[in-house]
Amino acid sequence: MNPLTPSFWLLIALVALIAEFFSGTLYLLVVSLALAVVGALLALGAAPIPALVTGSAAGVVGLALLRRFKRRRSARGTAIDDPDLGQPVDVVANRGGLGTVRYRGAEWQAEFDPVDLAPGSRGVIAGRDGNRLKIVPYPQGPTP
After folding, report:
1. What does the alpha-carbon distance between residue 100 and residue 39 come to, in Å, rounded to a whole number?
2. Theoretical Cys-Cys bridge with 92: which of 19, 29, 41, 100, CB 3.0 to 4.6 Å?
């Protein structure tokens, strides 16, 4: 297939779009859109060099917008709305600060602070990093 034909670029854009469905990062969506811009410009009769430059510019702008979107979204304080924060968990295994906890009937990957939280003890969810829960010791208050 000739790389100067619109169908070549549109086919690669379709492959990138399908790959995006499996990754879910949105970066391949931007790449797919940039490739589609090149294909569309070539289909409209643009010369290859201006089409490639415009597609590259579209990719750079798209990546900048995506980065801004992700930064704004993470700064929104999603942890405040997390209903799992403060919930108790049971420590199942701890291997140097990383391990597993039992929470809501399932085992979850966990990161412990302090790192020496013993298996069999209780902890509390203090945050999360993706699907990894950040666990602190269960508060020890006075017993009645």
Report:
1. 48
2. 100
